[in-house]
Amino acid sequence: MKLIIRLLLLLLSQYSLVGCYKISPLPIGPSIGYFKIDLNGKDWNKTYNNAYQTVESALIPYSGAYPCIEDHLDVFTELFSPEGYLRQSLYLTKIPKTVGTSKIIAAPAFHCDETDPVYSELYTITQDGDVVGDVYQPLEGADNYLHVEIYNSKTGEIKGTFQMTMVKTRDGGTPALPDTLRFTNGRFHTRFIRDYH
């Protein structure tokens, strides 16, 4: 009986260790195209030396997080540390599926109004890439806009430019960025995935 209990404890301890252990911090998803922007006058993409960035776009179906009636188009980018840990995530959500210019506003929690313009949020990530730190949203009244230059529903291609000023709306501990972020010269060119999981 003691042997069985010891074996069960050994199995449980191994299971709990495996649950927390990451084989690799590298992202699993694809990175398609580019996403470049200046943050407070410096190249945001080079925030971390010897690090890397991913760029993705997708048509996102209805979900509890953004209960939009129609599938909405998102473009998002993530910056990783030299060790491969996620450090920042920037989202442009509900991009119009047409060429033109739209305002960018703060992303409301668990809400989507089809008449709203583009939503955006930036998260800083701490520890080993899985704990949300500070949260930033577009400053109301600032000149925040996104311009879609190319949109092709058949090929999934989307290209555009944007600028926005963001302010910290949630303090997540040791600050990685200043309280106010001025993003200028934003440009992206990517291809969206139809069935995002």
| Strand order within the widest beta sheet | 6-7-8-10-9
State the shape: globular
Radius of gyration: 20 Å
Helix content: under 10%
- Low-pLDDT runs of 5+ residues are 2-23
User: What proportion of the residues form beta strands (DSSP E)?
Assistant: over 45%
- Tell me about the largest β-sheet: 5 strands, mixed, barrel
The structural domain count equals 1
Q: Spell the H/E element sequence.
A: HEEEEEEEEEEE
The helix/strand class is mainly beta
**Average pLDDT reading:** 81
Give the count of helical stretches.
1
Number of strands: 11
End-to-end Cα distance, whole Å, is 45 Å
Description of the molecule:
The protein has one domain. The longest helix has 19 residues, at 2-20. The relative contact order is 0.19. The chain contains one helix and eleven strands. A hairpin with a 5-residue loop joins strand 9 (145-151) and strand 10 (157-170). With 197 residues, it is mainly beta.
